[in-house]
Amino acid sequence: MLLDMLSTRIFTPRDLGSRENALNMIRLLLALTVLYSHAEVLSRTGDGVVWQGQHIGSWGVVGFFAISGFLITGSRIRSTAGKFLINRVARIFPGYIVALVVVAFGFGPVAQVIEKGTLDGYWGTGVTPLQYVWENALLNIFSYNIGTTLSTSPYGQAWNGSLWSLYYEFWCYIIIGVFLSWSLTRRRAWPTVLLFLMSAACHACIDKIGPYIGDDGSLKLLIFMLPYFMGGAVVRMLHERLPMRAWMALASAVIAYALIAAYPNFGKQLASPFIAYLILWLGAILPSPSVIKVHDISYGVYIFHFPVIQLLLIMGVAGHGFWLLLTMTAVITFVLATASWFGIERAAMRWSRGLKPWGDLLRRDSSTGRTPAPALPSRA
Q1: For 292-339, how does the pLDDT look when each residue is reduced to its tens digit (9 = 90+)?
Q2: Residue 50 three-state SS
Q3: What is the C-alpha to C-alpha distance for residues 31 and 24, in angstroms, rounded to an integer?
Q4: 166 CB contacts (<8 Å, ≥6 apart)?
């Protein structure tokens, strides 16, 4: 019976645009790959799992960008420019700002006391907690540390090294938001395909165009990341012609692997539409618990796990074994991510759509006295 069910899910054609999917679960698994990779690297336990020159956590970020490219492109097609921007700000910034504040005024003071035995100097030694929040508030990370904290961590350079990607993801939102402002680019797929090919070509020719962009590391990193996002955008623009079929997923996997193996410098970017299709197919065929379909804590896991690892390292947890460090990191991160989802992220998304931020969680059914099941605000 189980084999029959799996066979049915795998081989039955599915609509790529269906909301009945496991994308929340896949994003959570991708966030956990980043968590695992960072736990290994930060604790100096190992170099992490590496495939084709990238840590498994880096591949997790690639997956995030591919899924975002698909979902955010759909969101832009359905929305006006103003509404699109409001929704994107509401999705990224509230949780991000809370993560900065939690580190600056929660984790940081605890680390200072553990390492120095006192809070003296914490509030006034640069980079101060307020500077840490203020300087990083617009996603571009200028300050990774606070004062003299992390002096006993094996990796003392950053409190939250995961946040860098959000700046480039938001730039991808802006690029696709502007690009889809014309009816031609919204109605036809070929302009998006062309933009993807141009973005991949820019990365492939980065050595040749380098002299024209100088030493701007941020622009080079955007050129590196944009094709992953655009790969998902291409699949979204073609989704009415791309049903979810097992043979197409297998072909996508083979083509992606061939491109990555054949062109080490830019094959990953060129393969991104095929990577996106494969991830979306998995999202269409994999079962997912209902609670994960409704509640997406993957973003919270991504933005909170790094400082959790750092604090546990300062507390000496790694000395009792890597798996204890990993387990404690996962548990604490899940608690913070869940609190962030229900308390901040979900509320901000509801507010951006004109709903009461916590209305459905606080409302009680007068006939039963029970709180009704919460409706999911659209992730896109």
Answers
A1: 999 999 999 999 999 999 999 999 999 999 999 999 999 999 999 999
A2: strand
A3: 11
A4: 92, 96, 139, 303
In a domain, 75, yes or no: yes
Position 61 in a domain = yes
Q: Which long-range contacts (CB under 8 A, 24 or more apart) does 98-101 make?
A: 98/340, 98/344, 99/160, 99/163, 99/303, 99/304, 99/307, 99/340, 100/132, 100/133, 100/136, 100/137, 100/160, 101/133
pLDDT at 140 over 90: yes
State the DSSP code for 104: I
Assess whether pLDDT exceeds 60 at residue 349.
yes
The amino acid at residue 82 is G
Distance from C-alpha of 265 to C-alpha of 205, rounded to nearest angstrom? 10
- CA 58-64-67 angle, to 5 degrees, is 145
Strand partners, 55: 50
Residue 55, H or E segment: strand 54-55
Is residue 28 within 8 A of residue 330, CB to CB? The reply is: no
Report yes or no on 264 lying in a domain: yes
Would you put residue 212 in left (φ > 0), alpha (ψ -120 to 50) or beta?
A: alpha
Its pTM stands at 0.91
Q: Which of 73, 72, 146 is nearest to 116 (CA)?
A: 146
Q: Of 47-51, 52-56, 283-287, which range is least confident?
A: 47-51
Distance of alpha carbon 189 from alpha carbon 171, whole angstroms: 21
Structural domains of the chain, count: 1
Distance, in Å, from the CA atom of 97 to the CA atom of 343, rounded to the nearest integer, reads 13
Domain annotation covers residue 122 = yes
User: Is residue 9 a contact partner of residue 23, using CB atoms and an 8 Å limit?
Assistant: no
Computed from CA positions of residues 303, 308, 310, 311, in that sequence, does the dihedral angle turn out positive or negative? positive
d(CA 90, CA 303): 15
Give the structural domain span for 75: 2-21+55-293
